[in-house]
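Batch job 17 of 40 flagged for manual review because the log was empty.
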Amino acid sequence: MKKSLLTLAVLSLFYTESSACAWSDPDYEYFNLFTQSIIRDKSYLPFLHSYSTRFYSDFKPSQIPDDNTYAWKKFFNNQLNYAETDYLVNKMSINDLNALKKGTPSNTLLIKLGAGFYPKYREAVDYLIEAKYLEPYMKINYVETPDSFYYRENESSQNATNLDYGKTIAALTSLYNAAKNPEIKQRYGYQLVRFNHYTRNYDAAVQVFRKYVEPIRLRGAIYFMALDQLAGAQRGLDLKSDANWNFFQVFMNSKSRKESAFVSMKLSDTASFNNIMKRAGTSQEKNMAYFLLGYEDFNNPIPIMEKMFEIDPDSEILKVMAVRSINELERSYLPIYYYHNEDGNTSAQNATADKNSDQGKTTAAEPKKEELSFWQKIVRFFKNLFSSKKDKTSTESKADQSDDELLDNPNRIPVFSKNTYWYDDKTKDFLDDLEKFTDKAKEESKDEYWQIADAYLKFLKKDYKASTEILNEITTTNPEYQEQIKRMKILNDIVSQPKIDAAYEDHLMNDYAEYFVDKPEVKKDSTDTADDYYGPVPSTKDFLKDVLANRYFLQGEDGKSFLMNNKLSDLQYNPNSSLVKSVEDFYKKPDKTKFEEQIIAKNIDDVGNIDAFFAVIYGDRAMRQADFEKAKAYYAKAQGFKGIPRTDWNYDAKKLMPTQYPAAAYNGFNNISDLVFGYNVWESFQSTPEESMKKEDYPPFPFIKPTMNKLQLADALLQLKRIGSGKDAKAAVANQLIGNLLYNTSILGYYRQLFVMDIDNTNGGKYDFWSTDRKNPYQYYYKNFTDQSYIEPDNFDLAISYYKKAFDLFADREQKARTLFQMASAEQGKYYQYEAKNPSKIDYSDPQYSEKSDAYQKQLDQIKNQKYRTYFALLKNQYANTETAKELMGSCSYFGYFMR
């Protein structure tokens, strides 16, 4: 499948969703479960649905029969098969044919045909000799213009003008007159028309066609080849209507020239279609004209299909229109990745913002705390105590769902998605309309195609029972139809299963193993580089993996859901605690089914010591929650940790190899600097630790070593916590150091990589302020997990609480001032979290966009100053005269701005 990058670039301007890959191919972004190419008439393959190229190209050219080759095969009384005829006509050298003429053939095929072949087909062989002599010159002379930009260096400079015009015309005319066989005679006429066309003698081409081609009452392949050349000459004479009509005739009657004839028609306006429709006299012509109109129309094609159906319910081109429509629907219902629904992630604060919106006015919601009376608290306690209401998002409640609840879940794949290129929300209605049409067509047409199409549309609508019933009633000998029916029965079986349990997993392995077990890699055609560029084409197997991943997700089996689409090592990019626990539970499950062992567990890849890998993730989360005792317990189990499982390109081996961390490098567990307890001199994540960070100017605590591993770090924090429970200056410093570490390892800190399974503090998805309050932001399943990182948000109140203890214990005003600034920095993080959850919803197309945006930003600033500047205000009002505050005004531009 070769794709045009230029076409892709143009299409990307209209694509409504951003893709993970900059050079993504829209034809690789859905599963194509309904095989478009099952249409019987393969000459229409180029007109199947494609966004990557102007014409569909995912088929072998040999699938489209060549009219000329078939005409010659018939001419030779089927003495040669198709391949032999193609070789004789299109590939055999002129020297071999001349040798045959002389009676001394050396070519194997010609020897096989025998000595009687030339005498019997003398005129045909002589014509082929002449045609092969002319062929290298048979193209129009290219006229360079100042606007030309084509690269033509490797193209042959030969064209029709290189031949002597008078001699060539005379020779072809003489051969035409001498020929007795009408078909050969007409072929010489074709050469005369083509030669005049390519030498730009357009009037002569028209006259020659009328004199030498048309009078011969044959309307086979060669006639339409000549008509194609006539239309080209008429285009040169600016006879647009006549040219379009003749190209239309070629399109309708030729199998191998449909694509070129369509391009040549240049149907760029309604008038062009109307002219063809006016000239259409037969039902076939009218039907074809409707097809062209529907093919070019980006609107709902069903009205056109209705007209085509009235003319001929068995029309093959009607099936082409239907399969294009089905393919369009597939892109909405079966994308390779379902983007999570932002509306489903709306937090309480977002909802408040929506309520405050008035005709496009976006208002930021102020954080509110619900104040309850004593009696309300008692009532709420007993309600919660005896309520049977379940949290539907919890793992426990997911596992307890009935079959009906699972089947009714709106997030069961397939599900409608807005990942479409041309259609809008009416696509859902379009599915209903198309289903009505196919239901009618299957009653009128004798082709089983319509039954298959109707069954597939019911599959998209999740009516699996009706879909299967239709499939079971179909009797067909068409092998492509049979394969489509078989695949759809399997799809219906799997997607209709309410719950995927152990018994059903056994059924999958016993009956459908071919759709899940990886097959040995087949050596690819070296000429097809599309898969190398865009990755493998999405397959039925990939779709079923997605369906099962989604089913496990809805059932609360997040670990299995995750491992259907991801490797264990991928957890490093997004260590969400509940998901990690579910993956670990599956890893430790003792009695795995055959499906779990062979399909799911194979994605538990090499992360070194797996138990240590999990322990580091759990320990990191405990550290972010300031639960240092729990963190220490986990880190004690993680001393066998081999490093975050990254890969590097090995130039010698020419492949990715596991990263080998230097002995002194941070690997996710070892070699943590004591600067993690310091404070930043300036905010620069790219600078060295010594440039960005500075140690607190207090006597060191001996258990804080210059370099530590995470176990030692957790132990040091426990000791600081014990010291911090005192009432002296040392206790104040201990609390300040704990506050520093919590801030420095938050999203705002220089060491923000330490507790999110990362190797450095460079930017990435982990360092986003999330706009959701949900514990799990995923709505469907964990595909593309590494493209959408999510970790539990920082609790800046933890750092503030330790800073506050230090502030209360410090007696020195300078120390209090510095601690206030550190508290203010942590409070800034709380504001960023609030801001992320309250984005502006002003439409860019709003004529008052600038005014509304300014008003929105002004309101955000007001909320920021009123709710999130507590410690800046205290520092300004009570400690502005300290040396610390003066120094901060010079080094921190934001604080200086606030003070002014």
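Reviewer: the log was empty due to a logging misconfiguration, but the result itself is present. Residues 813-837 form the longest helix (25 residues). Unflagging and moving on to job 18.
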